Every structure is written in C-alpha cells, then in structure tokens.
C-alpha cells in the first residue's frame, strides 16, 4: 500500500499541502493509495484555542522544550499499519522527520514533497513571533535541522518542475549535497477549474468601481509574495495618472494595504474566483516561488497574468503569451509591465486569456495531475522491484 500522509487538515481553499492534497484526494480513485491526515472534528474551539495561545506565550520555555524534545511522540503516527505500507509520501519535512524519529528502523520508501516557497524552516518560524528572540532562534535552528535531515533521508523527492527547486538552492547553501542520495521526480501540480459565484458587474457594483482598469491579487500579504511591491507600483502608477484599481483578496496581515479608494481590500474569501474574474489582469509578484496554485486557477478563468520571472513561474513563459514576465523584486520593470498590459485593448486581453485557458486544459487540470501522480508512484515501485498496485 502507498500512503499519502499529512499531519494537518485538508481544505480545498487553503494553499500549500492542505489545498493540494484536498483536491488530489477528491480525484484520485485507487484502492491501494490511502490518505492519512487529521480529522477536522478534532479542532479545538476558539475559546480553548485562545487559552492555549496565551499559555504558549507565557510558558514558552516549557512549550519550546515540548516541541523540540517530544514532538516525535505525536499519536497521529501510531495509526499507521507499517506492515502493509510499502511507501509513504510526506508533504512536510517535519512529518518525515517525526516519522523517522518514531520508527528509525523502518524500511519504507520515503517520498517527500515540500510545498513552501522558501525553505520550510523560514516559513514555519513565522508562526512563532510570540517567542522571545532567544527561544525563537533556538526553534529556528531546530526547524533548520528538521529540513536538512528530512531532505537527506528522502529516497525520492517530488517537485512540480526543475524551476520550482530554485528557492531551495537559493536559501539553503548545502541543498545540493543534502539531496545527493535522493532521486528527483517531477509532477506538475493540477487543480479543478476555479468557480466564481458573482458576475463581474455585481462585483464592480459592490465595490463602486467604474470605468477603471482592474489589477487583482489573491494571496498572503507578505514580502516573499511581493505584496509590498504591489503597493509601491500602485503609488507610482497613480502618481502618473493611470486609471487603475487594485482589487486585493487575502488576510490583510502582516502588511496592511493602502488607504485609497482605488485600493480595495476584500479580505479572506471563499470566492476568490469572482474577484479574479472581475479584473483585467492578475498580478503574481513573488520574490521567490515554488509552484503557485493560484496561478493555475487564474489560467482556468482565462485571465492574463503578470508574474515575476522566478521559480516555478518560469515554467509558463514559454508555453503561453498570457503569462507575462517581469524581473523579480524590480519595481521599475513591474510598473512598465503593468503599463504595457494596461495599453492593450479588450480583444488583445481576451486572446491572452484564451491562451492561458488552453494551457490549463492541456497540462494543469486536476485529472491530469491525478493520472500523472499514479504514473510517478508506479515508476517508483518498478524502480524498487515492488509489484505495481
């Protein structure tokens, strides 16, 4: 049996492994592939969650010690029937590390996919800002060791593409050495076509947008995603009298938006499709990126995209004219690229969107990913002389 394991909750509208695996699970029909993940019913209520958060802050030395010393005893892993498992696909370096601590003598084929746009330690430590600097540094060193051990222990590592490996080479000096003993497989991410529940006219009416070119963004409001670059670009474009409205979705934290009627913060939404569908172009300004799921969803809505020339974004530039590159972390080039798209007529914008939609159907549907996932696992089994399920 092949197990797909994630010590977390599945949610189609979340990013990272949570959304990726939720979509794969709904479209992967194979009796010998089992998903193991946390049940949402085990979530604590808001009051208990608040109490725990305060306890973690005030008893942080105890909390830190529990993470570093006792995390391997998480009962989540005890549900695994190791006798009948041939391979486990981990979707977190911490999951693989913890599993191996609990079962150091296991002979199971360990497959790893890391979904982070940077090394996982860098992303994971951002959830622990309540710790003092000393404890935060200790925890970061632990998370960094987790990443290194997990990559080194992996028999196989699956990336969406060669380009998506770029953030790991850039931020982990010995990454190439760590993965030297692992075999690398590539599997394009796929996603169901993104639905939208409100017409463009209704969205524009709600936010009182009239006769304006609309740039949309959906995602985290942080520097790794390039959210601050959008703010800088907006100020320059408005100063030059370009009639552009920025329609933004996602939690307005840690970076806040601009105080201007042409800057609209929708907040977190379960209907990002309506925001994207109401826009003329979608902006993906990541400083670093892995293989952004939102990009695939925008393609499925037949919208043009302006994307930074970095990481997994590079896979799209030679395949469609509708994904338009700009130099990463370069505000001047970003502004020039937005102006270039701004000056296109409706027919030209529509043609770019059609190219993106055709590319989505050709390579990035959830059905394509599900079929290709089974093929990759079958390859791994054949390479290890295991009977293919």
What does this entry look like structurally?
It is a single chain. This protein has helices at 16-27, 46-58, 60-70, 93-102, 120-124, 133-153, 166-171, 175-178, 200-206, 227-239, 272-277, 293-300, 314-317, 331-342, 346-363, 366-383, and strands spanning 2-6, 33-37, 87-90, 109-112, 156-159, 183-186, 213-218, 244-249, 263-267, 281-284, 305-308, 323-326. It is of the alpha/beta class and 389 residues long. It has a 6-stranded parallel beta sheet with strand order 2-1-3-4-5-6, with helices on both faces. The protein has a 6-stranded parallel beta sheet with strand order 9-8-7-10-11-12, with helices on both faces. The longest helix is centred in the middle third of the chain and has 21 residues, at 133-153.
Mean pLDDT: 92
Query: Roughly how many Å is the radius of gyration?
Result: 22 Å
Across the major sheet, the strand order is 2-1-3-4-5-6
**Portion of residues within helices:** 40-55%
Largest sheet report? 6 strands, parallel
CATH fold naming of the largest domain:
Rossmann fold
Distance between the termini: 8 Å
- Which CATH architecture of the largest domain? 3-Layer(aba) Sandwich
In total, the number of strands is 12
Describe the structure concisely.
It is built from 16 helices and twelve strands. The protein has 389 residues and is α/β, with parallel strands linked by helices. The chain has two domains: 208 residues, Rossmann fold (3-Layer(aba) Sandwich); 164 residues, 3-Layer(aba) Sandwich (Rossmann fold), CATH 3.40.50.2000.
